[in-house]
Records
---
Amino acid sequence: MTFKVAIIGRPNVGKSTLFNRLVGRKLALVDDTPGVTRDRRVHAAKLYDLHFDVIDTAGFEDAGASTLPGRMRAQTEIAIREADLIFFTIDAKSGLLPDDRTFAEIVRKSGKPVVLVANKAEAKGAQGGMLEAWELGLGEPIPVSAEHGQGMPDLRDAVIEALGEARAFGEDEDTDDEDAAASEVLIGEDIADPDAEPSYDDTKPMRIAVVGRPNAGKSTLINALIGEERLLTGPEAGITRDSISVDWDWRGRRIKLFDTAGMRRKARIHEKLEVMSVQDGLRAIRFAEIVIIVFDATIPFEKQDLQIADLIIREGRAPVIAFNKWDLIDNPQELLAELREKTERLLPQARGIQAVPVSAETGRGLDKLMDAVLKTHKVWNSRVSTGKLNRWLEAILTHHPPPAVAGRRLKVKYVTQAKTRPPGFVVQCSRPDAMPQSYVRYLSNSLREAFDMPGVPIRIALRTSDNPFAGRAKKR
């Protein structure tokens, strides 16, 4: 097991930039605005020959427990308790502020080993801030530039000195093996053709993104599912900014949950930071397999809800709807029938989509939601044999043959499944460009009904066989 490092400090000292440098990817949102990070994020990191988990945290602020900054601080205190080593980060360019001294005392009382990181050391005048840092009593400040990657060798040496070589390197070989195994899993998932697997594989981690409008209860839902206050929640809209991943085990099935920022209508998004948050959420959707769309049951089917659902379906992800805040509904049976009728009518492109009433606040309906997720995931991965498909096609053509276009009857000859995730089919026909979209929708709906594939996108590509005599001059 690797050791854990928590990056701690007041807002705007470059904690997320250092986090991104250590993990080798731009995972955390970075902006000049103080307080961008709110939830704590954990990821595997590497510093030359050291392998560890790093925790990005919200900026430490002195605030009441009931306020948003106070709840952010509580998340940071959890990170301190979880960590084996603390990177106490200061801004060498601006020097020490009163909050630095206050929080240094909190870190010192934790009893954890500390490395004092003086970030932005490349800036003009940073030497003065470096000298001030000695006043904190946390040892020698290590000058680094997280943005430019300077000072990383000194940071590595400081980690070894703080933990000792046995602790810093004790699990190194095992970590390499784990990294290699993880790489094999990623290669198998992201590069290898999933269609090569004839049956449903429940050994791979399932990736689930949770999306929706601001204040729909996405973070509260994830906390309820995993049974702990892992993500920051509250009455304020738009608390979540980064897409935070959480590893979870449900009935023996490994799951990676992605919390995302609330998505407002594009016309209402003006701030650069909100644009970055939404883009981060879109990346989470593209990386996910299942996307749980959280609707506020008290104001469901807003225009933005439908646009989010349409985006997910166009991306080829498998959607599941959670009607949240069900504990606030007075007439649940009547409303549920009405919502399901609206779901079928307003989202015909994923007919049969699973829609489950839940209450993240009370925990009601969560098992039913996960059952719906698993069922949808199996459908999204399903494959139909070519023989069954063509027997179905023969019956369909007898019952409802394709129309005539410009006086010539269209011919549909053959169908096969080309891919899964989502199911994609190739239909061989005489004139693909002349095939009416209404008939393509008919084929799609018939496929969905005949082979029990509710609630997932179905792709149909029309192809024609090459004419070996095309282009040859006619004989005289």
---
Amino acid sequence: MSTPFSISADFIAEHNARLEDATTEDYDALKRALARHGIDAEALVQKVMAFGVAIPTWGVGTGGTRFARFPGPGEPRNVFEKIDDCAVIQRLARATPTISPHIPWDKVDDYAALREQAATHGLAFDAVNSNTFQDQPGQELSYKFGSLSHTDARVRAQAIAHNIKCIEIGRKLGSKALTVWIADGSNFAGQSNLSKALDRYIDAMCEIVTALPADWRVFLEHKLYEPAFYSTVISDWGTSFAVAHELGPKAYCLVDLGHHAPNVNIEQIVARLVRFGKLAGFHFNDSKYGDDDLDSGSVEPFRLFLVFNELIDAERRKVEGFAPAYMIDQSHNVTDPIESLMQSAIELQRAYAQALIVDRAALEAAQEANDALGAHLELKRAFTTDVSPLLAIARLRAGGAIAPIAAYRASHYRAQKAIERPAIGGMSAGIV
């Protein structure tokens, strides 16, 4: 059996050599511009190099819609091949050092081997995601009408047991958190008792929280709608916060950028959760109409920047217990998933770096003086600063590619994987 193709350090170095002089020249110009505002570009490079976001294992496969999924060439056929693709993203972009698995999609017989496979690529495991929103082959009871809030106690017990199993798997992988998203809700008025459904969910989650190791957290993920189009049990940040508060100090609220009502102020939600000590972290994506799962920063980059502006503010204030977890959560329907994930990681680094160069003293002075436009312009100054050379230098110094997508395409990685990984199925319906 031949060794699977990978992108070598020598190839990356050769690709960088053609770009390094121009990149250094651009960085030096940016460095001087930032210095005029009293900003140390070298310190920013170090911060960007330390920034990391988790890749979801499902993200390296082609997504789809409720109508169809069009598989791409060389898709990973199992979680070990998913890790290989995640490793390529980290090798080139140097911003994704962790993986977030989904169970049972990523169920294997030997989790020690899975952890070892990740470690050989310098990768570790982030939060484990449980799946009780789909029925699996051989599953005894159906989740068609709910899981943790189901009217049938046997179904709830099955869903609780699955989440506890996910915790056990997570411990083997070195994870420290469990993410719980449920599709529970109703599609018709009167279908569900809205109060009882929430009570059943809270009771079920209490059992899951009790099973958490002492140093673990549980992330509650809310979603406004879909597939429950009339009512969703955990539909908004307020419900999520109330439940997390009731569940105790191990429970936190996850913010997915697509899981909100249209035009809602997501950065304010972030600020509120920070204030109450219940911000778990993020599932990053972008949206145009709803929960579109588009590439991060592809539609509303200013909103992404404003989210990071709140995070930097909290970090500077040294908010107690502030340790948000970051993960990309997207569906790549018409692009190469590896390219989209690299570009999203770069956009997250960009928003992070731009938020770091906000003049906090000037911003606070304008806010205190009720200088609305002055405060806004300080944010826009940071947002419109092109930090691309700084990000490229950070990747270069970390051993990555100055231009990750260009290097990836030049490597012909996808074409090589198409040969190594023959397609195992045709066009299918469904999102994943």
---
Amino acid sequence: MIIGPAAATCNIIVITDPTGKDPNGAAAGSMSFQNNMFQSTFLSSSSGHFAILSGGEGSSTPRLQAIVASVKAMEAGASPQAAANLANSYSGIRVLVGTATKGAAVGGSYDVYVVTVSNNGTITVTPHSSDGTAVLPAGTRGAIIHLRNTEGNPMYGTASKVRQETAVNMGKMIRDGYSATYILGQAFGEVANDSGEKYGGGGVNLVSGITTGDMFTPAQLNTTGYAMNTPYAKISTSSDGWSIGYPAAEQYQTDPYDGSPLKIEYAYEALINAITVTGQTVQVSVYGSDDIGISETTQEIVAATVKKYGYDNVQIANRINTAIDSGTIVGVNHVEPKDINVKSSSRAVGVYYKPLGNDRSSPPWNLPISSSLLDLIGNIQTAIGLILVLLVLFRSTLIKSFMR
């Protein structure tokens, strides 16, 4: 098997609360025009609350070595600057490291802007290009953004301008009090639209340890991830919070429950919602099926159900089964309340599916006719034969009708 090269061309770390108290006060993420973005987005560690984001023009082996060295350094208590500096020992490799309380730094091969925002609101945007390590000091509100263009990107040549403009806009949002998770998503949208470096990748909330997981990463080797500036889901404008992910969302123009209009949620907006902690935040884990779309659609359904009914495994199972019956979720059997593992204290829900056998896409219908009879009807090759079966089934009803 030949796996194509991968390198994140856009790496961003944002810190809006260097005390680490705001659950949404630090975020990081990566994306690129290249394939195989799951190889380049390293979101570590939920327990250590730091991120290691990689990229560069070097080969995969030294990049992996640089990442491992940086992770080990952070786990041993090193500063982001010391960990990022290790990338300078590897040709063409870039490592961007950050935490909420220790700041951030980038080392190796890079073109970045370091953004700092003082307590009086002064924004400073400073360019750096492969000059040792570039540092966002601990205790400072700010960000680091790296951006280069990928060969073959139709928007090649835009990176320098977009890198600067996005850095300035992030500084303004930090100054104006937006959360780091929101700023990360907005920056992703701007970079995707204006530079073409648009495929996930993903993001992580460094304080709360929530990541986008495989929401946007490629489903198959040697393919691109999800474009961050394209529609990801449709969400009901009513209070029930119903939503559905693409591509199934293309079939819906209104909320199937109350007919209310649907609004489009773009992927960069879905990233914000996935890693931002709110009173309605739900972490959904899906087990039993890796089919494309099932995890995303299940997450949307569970989040909407929790919003309306709370952490009720019966209601969650009912909503999921409705989606299965309507064909929104395919390839899995109906779930029961016991298949829904709810932990309301940690705002987590686990959904355990059982894949259907025999290449079925949906469970058998629950009809008041035996399956053996359906098999018999399925084997009848003529309309006359089917009519005879119907006459046998409903002869008493027909006789009563004629008598009346």
---
Amino acid sequence: MMDNQHSSNQHTIKAPVTVSGVGLHTGASVNMTLKPGIPGSGIKFRRIDLPNQPVVKADVDYVVDTSRSTTLEHNGARVNTIEHIMAALVGTGVDNIEIDIDGPEVPIMDGSAMPFIEIIEQIGVAEQDAKKVYYTIDTNITYYDDKKNVEMVALPAVDYRVTCMIDFNSPVLGTQHANLNSLADFKSEIAPCRTFVFLHELEYLINNNLIKGGDINNAIVIVDKPVSEEELARLATVFQRKNISVEQREGILNNIKLRFPNEPARHKLLDILGDLALVGYPIKAHIIANRPGHASNVEFARRLKQYIKKNKHIKDVPVYDPNKPAIFDLPRIERTLPHRFPMLLVDKIIDLTDTQVVGIKNVTFNEPFFQGHFPNNPVMPGVLQVEALAQCGGILALNTVPDPENYDTYFIKIDNCKFKQKVFPGDTMILKMELLSPIRRGIVEMRGTVFVGTKIVTEGDLTAQIIKSRDAKK
């Protein structure tokens, strides 16, 4: 299986494919069609059996129930038991997909993610022309439920890893743990692992008609108490079998063979992957979970999403190391730009590619504009911050043409400009300009951001035109 999780681009599936089955809890027959999604669209379920075919985005904000599985609801539509297909999408590196479903619940299949993996691999995964943005954390993020004795933590890491530990105080199941060190191992190590249930829980679910689609082929039933012949006969009737037996030494209903000695712990890890995918952002962290369940997974996903939303701009902040030599020093900048004192507002360029430039402006009290702009409370004028961005953008634009000294850039439009923080003497402005689209006919569209430290102080969209200068060499 391709480890698309480490790819720099987003992925979808190559063509539509349909899978059919029954829902574990509803018992309803359902057809589910996986369809390619456009870049940046994420994972979406569409209830095609309901009026107007409402769409439910796979997002932790729309989780409404975690009692027996993970359930989403939005726009008047519900989709139950999404965790296994979500884990399969994570394991195959699929970022964007539309899932048309004609019933209220994702089919349970064999209780694992493997059938979905096989279907996705059968149709193939396609790379898209869009970058995949990973989010990392720089501090531990924790969750603890003292009532259920559940603990989860996300640790900073260079990739995505999961460690899961379970302890149900059961002599049959015992204490188990499972590890996933790389998503490349998901298919072989985690995807085949089936959901499990204790016999006492199964009896409650049956008596309350809560697992209408349950079968001993789509769940491991752990026998945690003596079972009479009458009970076995009743279970055989419920599951439409001639007979059902229990190997007391193994403690598994109907003597099915476990795919791994710690299959239950591995399935819990599978659920973690599926539920945390609802964060909505691909993450790099080491997740450690002790006694997890859907409720704790979802609450932890909410904390991760909240952290990312609060801090995601920080990952885009350029790193300024004053010890590193400049790519463009001041003499080189003067050879590229026509600006001179007092209007040259870029001291050096520290990064320059085909699509991005990063410059530095050291703000001092000796700037001539401070003599007339709030002299008793010096604040750098916002228009000059934008001018500094524009000069960096000029360097980016002129870097794309031969003989840049024969051309100038003139800015023709500024949109969406916002001034979020004041800039004072002593601040070091980090000026970042990024191309929004390829340069066509000399028109350059850029996104500009001014940082002081890790804070955004100014941002806006700037459009410039490259024009041959009047004193260009003939």
